[in-house]
Each structure stands twice: as C-alpha cells, then as structure tokens.
C-alpha cells in the first residue's frame, strides 16, 4: 500500500523489523519493550502489527502493534504501541496506523471499542487522539513506572450502539503491577 501524501509504504511488520526500529523507538515518549514481548505479540496477534517505511527503502518510519482482549461488551482492540520516527511526525502516519488498527478491531474481531494508554503529559498525542474521535475514559495513577499517570482513551466502534464503552469514570484508578498492555 502506498500513501497518497508522502510516498511511504505499509506492510505487515516482520520479526526482522525488531532489528531496524531504533530510529522509531528511541525517544522519550515511546515505550520500548523487551524483544520477547514484541515476539509474543507478533506470534499471537500478527493482524494487529503494521509497519510503514520510506518508499523504495527498508528504513522503518513507524509501526503499530496491538491485540484483541476482554469479554462480552468489554471485547475490544488495544493499541499497545503506535509510534512514528521523529522526522516523519505530523504527516498523518500515526492517523493511518490507528485507522488500520481500528479497522482490524471492527472487521476482523468485531470489537466494541479501541483503547490506548497515553502519558497524561503528552498533550500533542492526546490532542491527536481526540481529533481522531478518542475520549478520556479514565486516569490511571502511576501507570508509567509508578511515576507518571496515563489516560486510558477510548473510541467506540459501530458494534457499541449505545456508546457505553466510552462513558468516563468519575474518579481515577490506581495502577497495580502486572500490566501487559
């Protein structure tokens, strides 16, 4: 797939991409995980992994990874990571990657909503997600290394006819160890 705006291509994320994504991952706002974490996701939810790269190149410009989880009306897609290399930001790549994940959640997994966690201090990302239809569902205290809060943001999908999934909680929740987003 070639993007109309800046001549980038998208393709399924490959295991070998784990050796090529430092230019995308190494900034203060991107959560970086250990290799087995990425491999587990790629093996279990390959349909949720997509990479973007500069046209005519193997250089990654961004990627998205996620999963399907929950039970009943809590069945949803979760954005574990969406990130774009700093020199390619504000060009619509993240929006396209998010749309991909939303489409997989809606059409492959028939989910009720998509959720993600974002640093409460990351105003740029929060603004982008709000423009894409996400809203803050709850504040999670100490989510990032016990030091920084996160917003759990959600976007209802067509299956959630009454938009129950995005009714915000009136109080923050405290993060407890064991997260595996």
Automatic annotation (TrEMBL):
Keyword Lipid metabolism among UniProt keywords: no
**InterPro entries on file:** Acyl_CoA_acyltransferase, GNAT_dom, NatB_acetyltransferase_subunit
Keyword Transferase belongs to the record:
yes
- Taxonomy, superkingdom: Eukaryota
Q: Which GO terms describe its cellular component?
A: NatB complex
**What CDD domains does the entry give?**
NAT_SF
Q: Mind telling me which Pfam families this protein's record contains?
A: Acetyltransf_1 (PF00583)
In alphabetical order, the GO MF annotations are: protein-N-terminal amino-acid acetyltransferase activity
Membrane-crossing ranges are none
Q: Where would I find the N-acetyltransferase domain in this sequence?
A: 8-158
| Keywords, in A-Z order | Acyltransferase, Transferase
Which residues constitute the signal peptide according to the record?
Answer: none
> Record's family?
Belongs to the acetyltransferase family. ARD1 subfamily.
- Protein name, UniProt field: N-acetyltransferase domain-containing protein
């Amino acid at each position: 797939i070639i993007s109309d705006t800046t001549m980038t291509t998208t393709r399924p994320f490959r295991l070998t991409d784990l050796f090529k994504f430092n230019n995308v991952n190494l900034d203060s706002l991107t959560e970086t995980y250990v290799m087995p974490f990425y491999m587990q996701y790629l093996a279990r939810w390959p349909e949720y992994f997509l990479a973007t790269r500069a046209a005519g190149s193997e250089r990654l410009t961004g990627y998205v990874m996620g999963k399907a989880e929950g039970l009943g009306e809590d069945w949803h897609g979760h954005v574990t990571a969406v990130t774009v290399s700093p020199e390619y930001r504000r060009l619509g790549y993240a929006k396209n990657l998010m749309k991909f994940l939303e489409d997989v959640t809606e059409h492959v997994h028939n989910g009720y909503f998509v959720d993600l966690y974002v640093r409460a201090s990351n105003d740029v990302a929060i603004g982008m997600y709000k423009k894409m239809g996400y809203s803050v569902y709850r504040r999670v205290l100490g989510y990032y290394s016990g030091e920084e809060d996160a917003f759990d943001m959600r976007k209802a999908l067509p299956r959630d006819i009454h938009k129950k999934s995005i009714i915000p909680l009136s109080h923050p929740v405290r993060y407890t160890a064991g997260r595996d987003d």
